[in-house]
Specification:
alpha/beta
Length: 305
């Protein structure tokens, strides 16, 4: 409510993106209504089988909220897999028995339920496990065969040895849900990535949208994809001098070939640079020129205008 009185808005990393996702989205809408401020659902997804295919119900929630005068939107990245720590897979009813502890994460029925919701151990790729660095890049399914253990028992051992700090990339979303979110006019694009992560989204999100979902799959037209990368998020954040090409606006520009642009980053090589992008200018200064980094760093903190 205080933020709302200062023209702020609520950006939510929702409580549950898996079985409880729809309830979590309702919670965001409730907060927006009670605090009287706009709300944004970060990297929206339906990340388990019980909610897979329910994207139209999500849209109905948002449409109903907008008819009530609420300002609700979301952003999405273009992958059907996410990156985090393995303990986030544990269903809340098991993980949160009082205080979350490693003992709670050691619950076999909880892990069995978690694996069932994401389609099995084959969909969990290990990206960080300090006791066995060589396990990086292998799935829990593969490691279970290698170690001659049941997948659940293997996960329990890994959690015990690391106090729960096992990095994973988990394939859990449906392609049809992802495409619906990408195409929705009120959903803008994001990366949810960084320079050090094991997920390719940091290096690949926008070229992947342009190459796969615009050029190849024709999920949305090029012009709409560009709007969702630039003008829409700039307007959402209140950056009035950015997001469009016009006199007096900041020259944040990317030059690319729509016939060839695509991502090359993978879970094995998450920082691999895209192709088809020749030049990038930030605040009018070239940072990528003829495919080569210039070494310039003209970026700055952005504030609402």
């Amino acid at each position: 409510q205080v933020a709302g009185s200062y023209r702020g808005f609520y950006i939510s990393h929702v409580r549950d993106e898996e079985e409880g996702a729809l309830d979590s989205f309702r919670e965001v809408i409730r907060i927006a209504r009670e605090a009287r401020l706009p709300a944004q659902i970060s990297h929206i997804k339906l990340a388990s089988s019980p909610v897979g295919g329910k994207e139209q119900e999500v849209f109905r929630q948002k449409d109903d909220a907008r008819r009530d005068g609420l300002d609700i939107s979301a952003d999405v990245y273009p992958y059907t897999y996410w990156q985090s720590g393995i303990i986030v897979l544990m269903p809340p009813e098991y993980a949160m028995r009082g205080k979350a502890t490693v003992q709670n994460w050691d619950d076999k029925p909880g892990w069995e339920k978690a694996l069932g919701e994401i389609g099995g151990a084959k969909n969990i790729l290990v990206t960080g496990y300090a006791p066995e660095p060589g396990w990086q890049g292998k799935t829990i399914d593969e490691l279970a065969v290698q170690e001659k253990k049941d997948p659940v028992a293997l996960i329990q051992d890994m959690v015990r040895l690391t106090n729960g700090t096992v990095g994973v990339v988990v394939t859990a979303m449906r392609e049809s849900d992802l495409k619906a979110f990408l195409a929705h006019p009120r959903v803008m694009f994001c990366t949810d990535g960084g320079l050090r992560g094991s997920h390719p989204r940091g290096a690949g999100s926008y070229p992947r949208i342009l190459g796969k979902y615009v050029r190849e799959d024709r999920v949305l037209p090029l012009e709409e994809a560009i709007r969702k990368m630039t003008a829409l998020p700039a307007a959402r954040m209140g950056f009035g001098n950015r997001g469009t090409i016009a006199p007096g606006k900041k020259a944040d520009l990317a030059l690319f070939d729509p016939r060839t642009v695509r991502d090359t980053a993978t879970t094995k090589y998450p920082h691999s640079a895209p192709i088809g992008i020749t030049d990038v200018l930030v605040n009018g200064t070239p940072v990528l020129q003829n495919g080569r980094m210039t070494g310039e760093r003209p970026g700055q903190v952005l504030r609402r205008t």
